[in-house]
Write a structure and sequence with these properties.
The complex is a heterodimer of chains A (about 220) and B (about 350).
Chain A (H helix, E strand, L loop, with lengths): L3 H5 L5 H6 L1 H6 L13 H10 L4 E5 L5 H13 L15 E5 L10 H4 L1 E5 L6 E5 H7 L3 H10 L6 H5 L2 E3 L7 H6 L2 E2 L15 H6 L14
Chain B lengths: L1 H20 L10 H15 L15 H11 L6 H8 L2 H14 L12 H22 L5 H11 L2 H10 L15 H18 L2 H11 L9 H4 L5 H11 L6 E8 L7 E8 L2 E8 L2 H17 L31 H9 L1
The chains are: A alpha/beta (about 220), B mainly alpha (about 350).
Chain lengths: ~220, ~350
């Protein structure tokens, strides 16, 4: 028992000692057990917690500025209990039918989008209806972009927004989707979309006389 | 009135300020920086120094340390046995060698070392841990109990516990800084010393409170995982005469991305058993089977935590937990009930 230390003493070359001087003197232990090892179940829980969900939002007859608030909530992950500004927990949102958005009041005519090319005389003002005619995805995209705080994360968050003017969504994106965001207001049915027979057979309060001329 | 109050507050504050912050110096003297620079340069030139031995300091009082150790842990060690538990054979050999160098042919020291205490304490600790785990986790298969025991008695864990109850500086041993092995042996010697000073029941409390309680923040599945979850689950369901495991895909998202997530749940006879998530269906299935098993064994996150207030009876008959090959709810009732 007396030569415990001499038994464990292994002569090392000078170079080796110098290279390992720090660990040699600090007497570091093998930390195999002390560092917590994650079990497979815990790893799966972590995977589930940070999984990015793909949401679908149908923009038909929706106010883009109200919708933007809901879309932002999902894009940034604000609806999650693990949310933190420095936590990358945002989801993907796929917006379809952006061509059929409904602006409130006379916004189509009054709302102006400003752009400047940075050259003298390069300023331009585009009305909402003009912009929508040029690119039917831009009004909702800009609504989401302007609805977020201007910071370094904003452009990265925007990458998770996928806007399509109609219901033709590429197959590989459609397969990712697993949730639908509920519409903010019900889509109204227009009279000219109802078949003439149905209109004809609908119960009426008064029957006009045969001679009555409808203008 | 309020102005009076503010005045009084200000006066108190000023008194505090003068008493705490006033040091009688206006700034840092010009000699401080160059002196520190030279000191650091000399330190770097000397290279890394060995760790100083606490017992070589002038204010070291070994008897006081031993007394304090006893009181700190609220234990009732016999002081002689406690000193013996801290004295390793290598220290005695070193002392004898010192006497021989002086010229004494047959050095006779009246110091007792802890060699037999270590052997005794190791057996006792192992016995207590094993029995305690069986009592605290009656649903865990025997394989898991043994793995947990190995984990608790591993050198890293026992050495850490040993350091944390404050043995490091009091150990009388040749090696410095104290090696892990020495720390572990000291802990075992302490257990044996306590068993001799008091009784085995009290010793089991000591082991429970300092060693077994380290399990409280550990996830049992990260220490022991059944190696073939599918087969194990199927075998258990078969033994319980229930329908075989039925895996169903319950959710999936981002299928075409690298962050794809699949959620699979296991059912048997329309009864939910467990749920798992993974980057592929196969991984998720595996996790679901593991989850079902951990729910059965009572070691899931939401299961009742391991109790740390049990009393083990070392003298009672040994009853092992069910091994994985025999594990089923019916057998469990017999074992736990009888």
């Amino acid at each position: 028992m007396g030569n415990v230390s001499s038994k464990n003493f292994v002569p090392r070359s000078r170079k080796f000692v110098r290279r390992n001087q720090k660990s040699f003197f600090q007497h570091k232990h093998d930390r195999k057990y002390l560092t917590s090892i994650m079990s497979a179940v815990k790893r799966a829980q972590q995977w589930a917690t940070f999984a990015r969900t793909w949401h679908l939002f149908d923009a038909t007859w929706q106010n883009p500025f109200d919708s933007a608030q809901v879309i932002i909530k999902h894009l940034m992950g604000l609806h999650k209990p693990i949310y933190h500004p420095m936590n990358d927990c945002g989801d993907h949102v796929v917006v379809m039918n952006s061509r059929d958005i409904a602006l409130p009041g006379d916004e189509w005519r009054k709302r102006v989008y400003f752009h400047h090319t940075t050259y003298p005389g390069g300023a331009s003002w585009t009305l909402a209806w003009e912009l929508h005619n040029k690119n039917p995805t831009l009004v909702i995209k800009k609504a989401v972009y302007n609805g977020m705080d201007g910071n370094l994360q904003r452009r990265h968050t925007m990458q998770r927004l996928h806007v399509f003017p109609d219901d033709k969504i590429p197959e590989e994106i459609l397969k990712n989707i697993s949730n639908q965001i509920r519409y903010l207001r019900p889509v109204p049915t227009r009279l000219d979309h109802i078949s003439p027979e149905e209109v004809e057979n609908y119960p009426k309060i008064v029957d006009y006389p045969k001679q009555y001329i409808l203008r | 009135m309020s102005s009076l109050r503010t005045c009084a507050r200000a006066a108190i504050r000023i008194q505090k300020l003068t008493s705490v912050i006033y040091t009688g110096e206006r700034g840092i003297k010009r000699w401080v920086a160059p002196t520190l620079r030279v000191i650091n340069k000399r330190k770097a030139k000397l290279g890394p120094q060995p760790e100083p031995r606490r017992s070589n300091f002038l204010d070291w009082n070994y008897n006081a340390e031993i007394f304090a150790f006893n009181k700190r842990l609220s234990e009732n060690f016999d002081v002689e046995l406690l000193q013996q538990a801290f004295t390793h054979r290598s220290y005695v050999a070193q002392e004898e060698q010192k006497q021989r160098e002086v010229g004494i042919e047959n050095p006779e020291l009246s110091i007792k070392d802890n060699t037999d205490l270590i052997v005794e304490g190791k057996c006792l600790t192992s016995e207590i841990v094993e029995r305690y785990l069986r009592q605290a986790l009656p649903r865990l298969p025997e394989e898991g109990i043994l793995k947990l025991k190995d984990y608790l008695l591993s050198e890293e864990i026992v050495a850490k516990v040993s350091v944390q109850i404050g043995t490091k500086d009091i150990i009388l041993s040749e090696d410095h800084p104290v090696r892990q092995e020495t720390l572990v042996n000291t802990f075992f010697a302490l257990v044996a010393a306590l068993a001799r000073s008091n009784d085995v029941v009290h010793t089991s409390f000591f082991v429970r409170d300092f060693l077994i309680a380290t399990l409280s923040d550990k996830e049992i599945l990260s220490i022991w995982t059944p190696s073939h979850p599918f087969q194990t689950l199927d075998a258990i369901l078969n033994r319980e005469k229930r329908g075989s495991a039925d895996f169903r895909l319950t959710a999936q998202t981002g299928v075409n991305t690298i962050l794809a997530a699949y959620q699979v749940a296991v059912y048997s006879d329309q009864q939910f058993l467990g749920i798992g998530t993974g980057e592929t269906v196969q991984v998720a299935k595996n996790i679901a089977a593991l989850d079902a098993l951990q729910r059965m064994f009572g070691i899931a996150d939401f299961s009742r935590p391991i109790p740390f207030n049990l009393t083990v009876d070392v003298s009672s008959q040994r009853t092992e937990n069910l091994p994985l090959t025999k594990w089923c709810t019916e057998n469990l009732k017999h074992t736990v009930g009888g």
